Structure formats: structure tokens, C-alpha cells
Amino acid sequence: xxxxxxxAWIGLALAVLVAAVAVQPSPAQETxxxxxxxxxxxxxxxxxxxxxxxxxxxxxxxxxLWVKDGEDIWARKTGVAERSCADCHGEAGASMKGVAAxxxxxxxxxxxxxxxxxxxxxxxxxxxxxxxxxxESQPALAIASYVGLQSRGMPITPPDDKRLKPFLEAGRSLFxxxxxxxxxxxxxxxxxxxxxxxxxxPIPQAHPTGYPIYRLEWQGIGSLQxxxxxxxxxxxxxxxxxxxxxxxxxxxxxxxxxKGMTVExxxxxx
Length: 270
Fold this sequence. Notes:
mainly alpha; 11 helices; 40% helix; 7% strand; globular; 270 residues; three-stranded mixed β-sheet; Cytochrome Bc1 Complex, Chain D, domain 2; two-stranded antiparallel sheet
């Protein structure tokens, strides 16, 4: 009799588990050493030349369709206040330049960090008196892509704000926390095994240089939180709730890891 066909994810899970054995620290060892600043690479460095060319050409980059929708949202009056983003902020090319490179940032009202997506929704509910965008919805990704585009080519510059320190440290801890049935942390793959292969795909260094990204696997655009959820389900862990403080803390730590790297939004990834 022929052997039963094994689901593809089982082979993938086993491959990760076997690879992780090589980086399993002893109780006396510290966590996996972070990547040195001079060795940092954007996820685009692990793509094919064809994928990099697709990202570089705005006429071919499919994520630019979301950017165009975001431009329309920026100028559209909405909510009870009948106000548009442009009514408060003016021309996005000027007012939003560098903004996406500075998030997550501390929000005095909530006394915690918020992501760019969360800040956009705060503006909608307070200034436009409109319903917030749902996580991963088309308009949420569109306006985030449009705002993110205004920072393209600029360095990622996390805020130097002492109020963020406990949240940053919590994100650092979450990055090194082993989770799920495979008992793996983010660091086990993205610090210790970067440049290797997982299911035929390269393992990048987890630098958030291009979000929202158009992922070829998704055939659509998605946020950094969507990518983080994918990783968590990949190690058979229960993902955090959308827009949870845990996701924001991880995003804050990832931004600190990528400090000084260039914003590529909207990027393409495999």
C-alpha cells in the first residue's frame, strides 16, 4: 500500500522543529543574540531580482492600487463632522512626511503606545466623528499605505520617549518568548536562522521596513499584525487579539530593531 499523503504543514512544522534544535539554548545560556546593526538586511534583500523590480516600479507594484484608494480616502469628507483628513492635515506629501517612520508612538490619552493604524482610527473617531476602520479592512490598509508612502526612503526613527521604555522591554521579551506547540520564539528563526530556508522560502530578519505589504502568497495587502499572526499560527500558538497591547509592544520592539533602516512602504514580499 502507498503511504498516506502527509499534509504540507506537517512537513513544514517538522522542518522548523529540527532546525530549532540547533539553536536551543541551555538553561545557563542567554537568549539568541540579536543581529548586529551592520548586518541588518531588509526583507527585500531576500527576494528575487524580479520581485525587487516589481516593488521598485510604482506602475507595476500592485500595492499602489491600495495607495490610490488611500489618497481618495484622505480627501473624502466623512463622519458626523463632515471632515476629511486633508481638512486638518492639508497636503499629505508635506504633513505626513516621516510620520509612518515614527510609529508606534506614545498616546497621552490612553497612556500607552499606539500604532499608525490605531492613530488613524483615533483621528476618525475624535475629529471626524466617524466609525473606526475594522482591522485589515480595505480602507484601513489603503489609508495606512497612503500615509506610509509619504515616508518612503526615510529612516525608521522610533520616538526617543522614556514613557515607551516599559512597553519596548515587554516587546523585547515577547520577541524572545518561546510559544506554541513547536516551542519557538521569533528570535529562534529571525535572529538565529535568518538567511536559511523554511519550506523553500527564505527566512528574513523580521525588520518592518515596508508595511503594509503586498504579499504574493496572500495575493493582497496586509498589515504587520497580520504577518505576526501568521508566524504565531505557524508555531501552533494562539495569536493575540487584533490591536492588543502585546502586538503593539512587539511592533515597538521591531521598530527599534530596524532603527535607521529605510522605509519601503508599500513593499512586496513573497
